[in-house]
Amino acid sequence: MSLRRSPTTWSLFGGTRSVQSQLIDFTLPELAPARIEQLAGQLAELGCLPEGFAEVSAETPALRLVKLACAVHQALLAEAHLFMPEETEVLPDEGASTAIRVAVPRIPMLGNMASTSLRHIVGCCLQSVNGKKPATQWVAETRKQLADGERTMANNHHFARAARELGMPFLEWQGQAFQIGFGKAAVAMRGAMTQDTAAIGVHIARQKQACNGVLAQAGFPIAMGGLVSNLTHARGQAERLGFPVVVKPADLDGGVAVSSDIRTMEELERGFKSARAKSPNVIVEKHVDGLDYRLLIFGEQLLVALERSPGGITGDGKRGVRALLDEFNADPRRTKDQNTLLYPIDLDDEAMVMLERQGLTLESVPEEGQFVALRRAANFALGGSVRRVDDIVHPDNLELARRALRTLRLDLAGVDMILPDITRPWHETGGAICEINAQPFVGEPVTEDHYRLILSRLIEGEGRVPIVLVVGDLDQPARGKIAAEVPDLAIVDSSCARLNGQPISVPGSAWPLSCQAPLFNTGVGAMLCILDDVTHAGAGSPVDRFSSAFILSDDEVPPAVQALLKRAGSVALAAGVKDEELEKAGISTRRITGKSIADELLKALK
User: Fold this and answer.
1) pLDDT grade, residue 8 (50/70/90)?
2) For 227, 519, 536, 580, which has the most beta carbons within 10 A of its beta carbon?
3) How far apart are CA 348 and CA 351, in angstroms?
């Protein structure tokens, strides 16, 4: 088997979503059909093939094996919670029986992982067919590799998934940013930051000392404290503030290396070293008594309010702490996997300190219902728990959080507050804002899909503009008439893309790339994609779907163009264009009658 990238390494391919996909050419040896079907049965038994896929196929052995590998690939990625915005696409067969071209969509923000893993799976399938490696072995190995793979920017993956579910197109940018929607209807994002999020607010929120200073100036309750340069300085700060104190990095989010409720110099030293290991900038501040709350707010709307408790166990009056913790961690849902909703609690130095504070040992038997804290911080990733409290948040406390976001010019953020009682106003009970997370994890451990809610509020409809495909040339008078009546129309042909007569793509680029340019242009309200040379269709589809398509040429419609037409909402034929081939390909058509081509196109573009 040989694998190589196509000369056009990156193109836009349709499917269920429009994303950057990598072209891979597989050249396979002659294969025995019976062995491939045997492998299909084994893979079905291993639970990595969709129902019915293992049934005997009449396809060529090479095509069957590649499609088999693609199905396994899709299933194993889904198991590992690795979202692919569209399915892998096996491109139209051009007559070769052993050479197969595949368009593999990128997993958002994970580069070449999808194409690399597909190559691996195709290779493993070949080894199994040739009797060199059993499917049970490589499927287990691949599952582990995908499950253990590094995840970054989790919000991006969830927004991509939500966009697909809402029918919105997703385009990945460089720098871990992305776009949902096309042209004027599009919105750009990066994680939980939208194009309306003020960069200055994100910067200030990430610098905890600066954020506290701004909030204090604006009249918000905050914890007293400040930056410390070394351990000696930290000790002096703790003495001035009085124990208990909190030690944390000044420029990291997500509760990283935060040590709360520190009561001794020994604990202070450990907390300082932990924070300094993550950042050179460390804060020591006064610990505020109360319960820990996270209010997730978007556009003044409360998405969720959570009361967060530190990790620990609850006594039953019969068993000791060690046995209770063993049972707690034995829950199969509690893992250290990056996609888990429940985390275990390690029996480490912090756990022993917390037991000592409560006058307990590992063998102590807590009373029934007695909660034994094994962590200082109410951090979900440290085995903590959460409880929804949306319906009991006092309006004054909610307004405090909203006002903080307005002050920093943030549209989406998590406000962390310490309050004795969230049902009573902060100005009566005391408390403080301890952090504003301008890049929060939107998928808090609750049932609502906040990603879909946010996209529905950010984007009108599906975030699309009319995109019409024309197969064949369109004369200049018709182009001029259409451009005069459709504002902000981008016209693309084999030369380049133009908006209001001005080029917006590099002349001479491949047709799909020229079609791509208007998708990113916020001045584009509609697109007319003229495929005046059908050989350009072999490079793939520029979008996931066209509003409609028009065939003006009576030339034969090759399979690659048929694939584009299948993405159109409707297909219209000019006079003289034959429809027999299209009917055989399962493409429904209508004949243009009574109107000029220009009038039909105008109707489709408005």
Assistant:
1) very low
2) 519
3) 5
